[in-house]
Design brief:
Elements (H helix, E strand, L loop, with lengths): L29 H10 L6 H11 L13 H11 L4 E9 L4 E8 L4 E8 L4 E4 L3 E3 L14 E4 L2 H16 L12 E4 L9 H12 L13 E5 L3 H8 L6 E5 L5 H7 L8 H15 L3 E7 L7 H12 L7 E7 L13 H13 L4 E3 L13 H5 L1
Parallel strand pairs: 4-7, 7-8, 8-9, 9-10, 10-11, 11-12
Antiparallel strand pairs: 1-2, 2-3, 3-4, 5-6
Helix pairs in contact: 4-5, 6-8, 9-10
């Protein structure tokens, strides 16, 4: 094992000197939208009409906003609906039901989102940062470092873009809607806490103030920023917490997830358990299966023991992820037989366990692969 860094800062700031994205109605609550229009000499009551076009009607063409006066329409749209991101490339897999989009943000930063349509649901996987500062060695995004935090509106726009594609019947299966959002794209969501919580609120605000989604359909992932997990538990928003654990012992996790040198396995799992206890929401333990690294039977037993030590009241579920290897990486997916044995051992200890459906492998489905190639 290589030497892990001895410590990482709690606050992960992107490089200084970058311009901020323009303000957008998705950044603001209804009062803030009204105020921004009025600051620009425009009638504040038009904010609700613009919100209805954006969140309820999913309109992106100003010409379709016929309830706005023609003489003011351009200024109203420029003020509250500035263009935040441009699609550079969209790749499809699974007969068109998996769509990965590479976006260029206003300052040239690149991020990715993925729309996955299943028979019973449609899930958007969104990015929360351009790059990532967590430096996990098996992750394509982590190897590129952190460029900057995304704004609330940049995060929301990924979901709205997916919602438009579904509503317009552009995804096989006929018109539909986004039912689930997972913060499992590029970046560490809890390192961009304020913008991510803002996005969760916009997604769950009733239409037309937001998309009107159920918080129970939203999953926020983290590698284990313990103070932020505890802060999230106090928000009163019953999102699902997904903890990217990847190893049940500190020696290995220090290498795989460097933040573990700051917050140990025991501290991190305890924070996740407290989240489940306070919110009554089952926590998902994410575990990327890596051949010969973390997929040994004894590690399955140890993981089961760690999770079971907090009781067997159904607070946790393990989601094993077949690693989507990046080109030239030493990190490869586990042998299917080892994967099955890992599942068997966890289930023998009473831990509900599933293996994630590996969608998008042929379109560089792992987060950061498309941006890195670009």
């Amino acid at each position: 094992m290589s030497d892990a860094p001895k410590s990482l800062p709690l606050v992960f700031e992107p490089p200084k000197g970058r311009a901020k994205p323009p303000a957008h109605l998705a950044d603001l609550d209804p009062a803030g939208r009204k105020a921004l229009l009025e600051e620009n000499g425009l009638p504040g009551f038009r904010a609700k009409q613009l919100s209805t076009h954006y969140f309820a009607r999913l309109v992106d063409d100003p010409e379709q906003m016929t309830d706005l006066p023609a003489g003011q329409r351009a200024d109203l749209v420029a003020t509250l609906l500035p263009n935040l991101m441009t699609p550079l490339r969209t790749m499809e897999a699974d007969k068109g039901t998996t769509r990965k989009t590479l976006w260029r943000l206003f300052d040239g930063a690149l991020v990715e989102s993925v729309l996955m349509r299943y028979p019973d649901r449609a899930t958007m996987c969104v990015s929360s940062q351009a790059g990532c500062g967590m430096a996990c060695p098996f992750c394509a995004t982590g190897q590129g470092g952190l460029q900057r935090n995304m704004s609330t509106a940049e995060i929301v726009e990924q979901v709205v873009a997916g919602a438009r594609a579904l509503a317009r019947g552009e995804v096989p299966g006929g018109p539909g809607r986004v039912s689930n959002v997972v913060f499992m794209g590029m970046g560490e969501p809890l390192a961009n806490y304020k913008a991510v919580i803002g996005a969760v609120r916009r997604l769950t605000d009733a239409s037309p103030d937001g998309l009107g989604m159920s918080a129970r359909g939203i999953t926020v992932s983290t590698v284990g920023l313990v103070p932020r997990i505890r802060q999230l538990a106090e928000e009163g928003i019953p999102v699902t917490l997904a903890l990217s654990l990847h190893a049940p012992d500190d020696e290995l996790r220090n290498e795989l997830v460097p933040i573990n040198t700051r917050f140990s396995v025991a501290e991190t799992v305890e924070a996740a358990w407290d989240y489940a206890r306070l919110t009554k929401r089952r926590v998902s333990i994410e575990y990327a299966m890596m051949r010969g690294i973390n997929d040994q039977g004894w590690r399955a037993d140890l993981l089961g023991d760690v999770l079971q030590s907090y009781g067997d009241w159904g607070w946790v579920h393990v989601n094993l992820i077949p690693l989507n290897p990046t080109p030239g990486s030493k990190w490869t997916a586990s042998d299917p037989a080892d994967e099955r044995e890992f599942v068997r051992r966890l289930e023998a200890k009473g831990i509900p366990t599933t293996v994630r459906d590996t969608r998008g492998r042929e379109i560089d489905g792992a987060c950061g692969q498309l941006a890195a190639a670009e």
